[in-house]
């Protein structure tokens, strides 16, 4: 049976990908289609789906700077949105009950408050997947969205712990000693190598030391995976560990999306109520925009954050399932939540895919603050006398920057979306500033003396380089643009967009290695 699931998911995902939509929408549709044909989820699919979510939270932890959670826009913004959205949905449900909606006839105020709380959350799985597909996980709005989602996860853990009737064991207090193990865990990571032991160590940390340990003492297992990842986030090899899990995590998450479609049997009544919930969803998105904008972020940042979080969460199913088990929620309502979650994914996916076009249209109507009134991370970008720009200061961008600094006398400026990366490069003596080159407003925010003659697109994600190139071609810039890519089709896409030079990083690495060896051996012979 699992072979049928995998085949259907592949066909559906491939078709949606060719339609320029995220494959996860195809996986959802595959689940619904399989359910309509009489298939049910299996223990294997369910277990793999749970593993996928656990590994996802672990990799989030590996990339999370804990300090970001203490930013006012994160903890207060997430709390304010949760309270406002819960209140809105509760009032809307009360109004629908007053209009004699049959689905709500047996629900009291406390049950509606619980349902409103469940609907206030956004999907961590969907948002992270959307950000990864766009290559904007470290963009300003990506950091905001992830921070707010993690705060929601914390709210979820508190709720589940308080309502599950299961009190954590006294041994749970020992978990406060986990930070003491950080040096040991870091040393083991240093010794884990770069192959299968690195992957196995990551799985051990996520599933055993994290989820297993927390579950054993009566605390939500997924929280343990997140915290174990956070403990190692500052380690130099944390990014490598996250990348080593990427393909396994993606495979398991396919099962997660399939499982949503396979889990419930829709009825016309439950489907109708799900459509009503979808009609209320835009208010949730507007509240996200209002909260983020209130912290003096630009229109683009507030809008993109809202679009990333513009969905219902799989956590709604968890809350609904718990309420159903305790008699606080009717069964048809739980089915409606499942349908609404799935529909919100299907509706939200194309919005995120075409987010730049939506912003271009919406920016005509949404008022923008004056530059001096914006958040510090949104201030104008001063490029000074730079002649060369390196967009993306990862390993490749850094290597290109250092090589050009050695062989050229023109001023060079690096641009990166990560604050910690910018700070590190500045400490190393490089001229690097914070910025998002995929932002349509990036070049309008940039202030320079007009000396830029060469731009290097060195971001690790090909889509990010493509988006940046599209933005460059819409500016008066007349200099040269060079870009990197990992695969031949990405290389051809960049050339089709008019890049002056495009380089396959794997091929160039081999050529560079050969040149280095030839030069070294030639000098030895001399």
UniProtKB/TrEMBL annotation:
Its main location: membrane. Keywords: Antiport, Ion transport, Membrane, Transmembrane, Transmembrane helix, Transport. The chain crosses the membrane at residues 21-38, 44-62, 74-93, 113-131, 143-164, 198-217, 245-262, 268-291, 303-327, 333-354. SUPFAM superfamilies: NAD(P)-binding Rossmann-fold domains. It comes from the Bacteria. Residues 385-503 form the RCK N-terminal domain. It is found in: Membrane. InterPro entries: Cation/H_exchanger_TM (IPR006153), Na+/solute_symporter_sf (IPR038770), NAD(P)-bd_dom_sf (IPR036291), RCK_N (IPR003148). It is a multi-pass membrane protein. Belongs to the monovalent cation:proton antiporter 2 (CPA2) transporter (TC 2.A.37) family. This is Potassium transporter Kef. It comes from Salinivibrio costicola subsp. alcaliphilus.
């Amino acid at each position: 049976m699992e072979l049928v699931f995998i085949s259907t998911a592949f066909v559906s995902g491939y078709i949606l990908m060719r339609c320029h939509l995220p494959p996860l929408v195809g996986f959802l549709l595959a689940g619904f289609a399989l359910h309509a044909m009489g298939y049910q989820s299996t223990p294997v699919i369910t277990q793999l789906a749970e593993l996928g979510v656990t590994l996802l939270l672990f990799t989030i932890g590996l990339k999370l700077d804990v300090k970001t959670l203490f930013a006012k826009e994160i903890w207060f913004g997430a709390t304010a949105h949760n309270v406002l959205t819960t209140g809105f949905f509760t009032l809307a449900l009360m109004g629908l009950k007053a209009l004699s909606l049959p689905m709500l006839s047996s629900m009291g105020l406390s049950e509606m408050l619980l349902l409103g709380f469940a609907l206030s959350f956004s999907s961590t799985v969907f948002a992270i997947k959307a950000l990864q597909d766009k290559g904007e996980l470290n963009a300003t709005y990506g950091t905001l969205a992830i921070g707010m989602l993690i705060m929601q996860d914390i709210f979820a853990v508190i709720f589940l712990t308080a309502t599950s009737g299961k009190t954590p064991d006294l041994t749970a207090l020992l978990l406060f000693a986990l930070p003491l193990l950080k040096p040991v865990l870091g040393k083991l990571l240093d010794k884990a190598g770069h192959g299968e032991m690195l992957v196995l160590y990551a799985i051990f940390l996520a599933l055993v030391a994290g989820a297993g340990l927390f579950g054993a003492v009566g605390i939500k297992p997924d929280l343990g995976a997140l915290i174990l990842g956070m403990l190692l986030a500052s380690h130099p090899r944390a990014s490598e560990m996250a990348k080593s899990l990427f393909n396994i995590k993606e495979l398991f998450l396919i099962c997660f999306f399939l499982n949503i479609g396979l889990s419930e049997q829709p009825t016309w009544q439950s489907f109708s109520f799900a459509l009503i919930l979808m009609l209320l969803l835009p208010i949730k998105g507007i509240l996200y925009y209002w909260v983020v904008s209130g912290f003096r972020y630009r229109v683009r940042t507030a809008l993109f954050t809202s679009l990333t979080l513009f969905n219902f969460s799989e956590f709604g199913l968890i809350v609904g399932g718990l309420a159903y088990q305790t008699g606080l929620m009717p069964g048809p309502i739980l089915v409606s939540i499942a349908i609404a979650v799935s529909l919100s994914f299907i509706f939200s996916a194309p919005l995120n895919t075409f987010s730049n076009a939506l912003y271009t249209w919406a920016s005509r109507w949404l008022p923008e603050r004056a530059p001096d009134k914006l958040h510090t991370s949104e201030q104008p970008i001063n490029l000074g006398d730079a002649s060369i720009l390196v967009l993306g200061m990862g390993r490749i961008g850094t290597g290109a920057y250092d090589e050009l600094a050695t062989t050229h006398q023109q001023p060079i400026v690096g641009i990166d979306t990560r604050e910690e990366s910018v700070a590190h490069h500045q400490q190393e003596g490089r001229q690097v500033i914070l910025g998002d080159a995929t932002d349509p407003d990036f070049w309008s925010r940039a202030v320079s003396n007009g000396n830029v003659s060469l731009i290097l697109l060195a971001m690790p994600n090909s889509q990010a380089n493509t988006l940046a190139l599209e933005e460059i071609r819409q500016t008066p810039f007349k200099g040269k643009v060079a870009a990197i890519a990992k695969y031949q089709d990405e290389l051809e896409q960049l050339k089709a967009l008019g890049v002056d030079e495009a380089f396959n990083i794997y091929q160039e690495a081999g050529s560079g290695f050969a040149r280095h060896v030839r030069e070294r051996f030639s000098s030895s012979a001399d």
